[in-house]
Structure formats: structure tokens, C-alpha cells
């Protein structure tokens, strides 16, 4: 294998995706395939600049952006085709992209149409499973690979977003447990990280309501639910993802990074 591995990060321009991209760049050990859906050129350029300035390698880290709509399986297949067309393979897959589809703070099951459940599963879970199917054969062939899903503490507790989101995230866990056992002797680890409330993510941004003051009030109220008394930082999730990549003896795990919310 070449010394530098290839990491595909979906949802790379969001808070957790951005922090994880920079964390990988700092090691100098990875070239980066950065997925986005609707992020502006300005946003992508800013992330690319951060990546290049963060790299610890004298040989510039390669980083390319790839557009895909994660609600479309055809678009996901095209994403894999485009990434492997540039890099040849994917060594590390961080299935980070996710969405709540405009439904959060749900108070009644009747408020979420069944098609929203299906769409939420597709974006948060189904597309990650498809990408895993596409990337896994090369990982198995070379005897090394890392697959990580960005889940949520909502998969354990139900959370506050809604049943569509909690059920989609919990579906990731069953898949992680099955696949991890299936490939454990093939040099491929499969894990998930399950954050609680993370500052500066797209979901938190969409909760800001109609003003900055309201957003701060919401943030303080939510932080008060956590034993540590604050929201998490995207960098704390990124550090956990990097640890999972670096540690070959960790597989079949869902690690909560949640400020003490969930005790297991």
C-alpha cells in the first residue's frame, strides 16, 4: 500500500466534517476526498485553505471536492465512481452526512409523514451502507480499511429531534454490529461515533430560530441538559474518529461522545 491513505468524508463542509477533514490533514498521512451537496464555492475554498495550512507533511496533502445528493442512490454511486477515478480506492470511509429533513423538536408521531421516515433513513443510513458496499471490496483486497458512521446519542435515548432521526441513527448500529463481525479478520474495522449536541453543526444552526438571541437561549437550555454543562465541539468528534482509525483493536463499537448524557 502507498504510505498515504485515502479518506472519504461525507458531509465534509459541515461542522463535524470540516473538523475531521482538518484533523486528518494535520497527520499528513491522508489524501482527502471531500463530499458536499450544496456548499458554496466560498465555503469549499475556505475549507481547502484550512486543510492545506494544517497539513504537517512537506508533501502537500491532496484534497478534492465531490458533489453528491445523499438522498439519491444513483448520486451516491456516482460519488464513489468519481472518487475512485481520482484516487483509485478508499481506505477510510467516514459516513458523516446526515439530515433531519426539516422536522425537529417533534411532539407527536403524527407530525412526521411515513415518507419522511424513509427519506431520513436513506440520507442518514442507506447511502452510508451503499458507500460501504462500494468501498469494502478494495479494503478487503488490501487487508486494511476503516469504516465509521456518524450516529447520534438519539439512537440510545430517542433524543429531541424526532422519531425519524432517532430510528435512522439506531439502524446504523445494527449494521455496524453485523458488518464488524463479518470483516473483523480481514483487517477492516467498523465503528460508529454517537455525539450529543455539537456546537456549530448544521442542525444546531437550523435551531437558531428567528434571531441570534433566541439561538443563544436555545443553546444554553440544551447545554443545561448535559452533565458537563456545555455543548460538544466538532473537534472532539474529529479526535474520536481519528482514534478509531488509528486503533486496529477497536471494532464493533458505538462510542458516545455526549458530555455524560448516556451512561453506556
Total domain units: 2
Report the biggest beta sheet as strand number plus sense, adding barrel if it closes.
7 strands, parallel
Span between N and C termini? 37 Å
CATH class of the largest domain: Alpha Beta
**Shape-level CATH architecture of the largest domain:** 3-Layer(aba) Sandwich
Q: Percent helix among the residues?
A: 40-55%
- What Rg, in angstroms, do the CA atoms define? 18 Å
Name given to the CATH homologous superfamily of the largest domain: NAD(P)-binding Rossmann-like Domain
So how many helices?
9
Taken in chain order, the helices and strands follow as EHEHEHEHEHHEHHHE
User: Using DSSP, what is the number of strands?
Assistant: 7
* Shape designation: globular
Pfam families: adh_short
Protein name: NAD(P)-binding protein
GO molecular function: oxidoreductase activity, acting on the CH-OH group of donors, NAD or NADP as acceptor; quinone binding
GO biological process, one term: fatty acid biosynthetic process
